[in-house]
Sequence to fold (270 residues):
Amino acid sequence: MFFYYLSLLFIFLITNPIFSESIQKISTLDEVVSLDSTTDHNWEIALQKIDLVSFSHSFLNGKKDSNVRLEVYKAPGVYKLPDESIQTVTIVKKFIAPKEWKTSAVAVRLGTLTDKDKTYFNGVLIGATGDMNSVYPQAYDKIRIYPIPNDLIRKGESNILVIEVKKFFKREVGIEQDRTAIGDASLMQRELLRAEYVKILLLMIYLTVGGYFLFLYVRRRMDRENLYYGLFTILLVVYQFLRNQIKYDLGIEFIYMKKLEYIILTILVP
Fold:
């Protein structure tokens, strides 16, 4: 009897593999749908160099590249590299698109990647940030939103998003912060800008307060605490602005903004 149940268990494990791949099903693209990892589906990461186009086409054609070793990756989140010599990784997200949608413009939100990236959707480049050959940091706190042409999306079928990420930090790589999502491009942009402009509005209030204390110091120079509080508040406003996504509209090189941000942080936290 024991061997009978053991054989049944063996057959069950063969016919129902425990580690089967689960692909996320997107219900609609007319809204902004989360792509973050859950208990039901994840992202994947490969530490080796991959031909992103051929890898994508192999997946779309139902073929599995046995030479590519993918690991489960929970996004957003930092992936700790086993070796500092690894400079670039490939992050993969597979999903099944809905059969139909109404929106004319679809986009994907990738959060803040640990610096430079090239992003492919179904084997076609849809966006890139930074120069892969540069040794300087260029965008490791920038939220990426890339448009996806409607004709690239396979309706009711599997699709694949492949991101080549070049790190800046020694052992950390991946979609570090924020969140990942796909859906209506206008809704996605509006959501991001609304959040950033609300922060700007709050900074303007703090800037007014800082200016007021400096004005009090000009009127009464004996009260030096007004000077210190005013300068502290204004520096804090500049620091918080340098952490806002709107700063990228200024056209200033990323490295200079980061240097100023860290200088101000050093002054604020002695």
